[in-house]
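Researcher: Structure prediction, please.
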Amino acid sequence: MAEIPNYFEIGTPDPEEARHFYGSLFDWTFDDPSPLGYGMVNGGKGGLWDTTSTGGSSWAIFYVQVDDVKAAIARALSLGASVALPYVDNGSIEFAHLLDPRGNRFGVWRPKQSD
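Model: Predicted structure follows.
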């Protein structure tokens, strides 16, 4: 698989402000957030994450789909990256947030096969 960026996410402790800003700027649409504070943007092309319950961080991030999330994390670490959000398996996807050697945040992810 070609490892290309194919998803974005905005993390914010003020999702209403982000919806107003990005909706006004780019005419984006936003689904209602889940009970965990996560809502899809533009029908699944991205996500908006209310980070209030996880420390209130703010970020804008792109994700690269990979075949093996744990291997991608290990390779990134060997090249000088660090982990911003450790490996997560939420049942439908696996992902992690990493910081490149200059501190730029990015994500790696993989959809899980449904049985």
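Model: The mean pLDDT is 93.
Researcher: Thanks, that helps.
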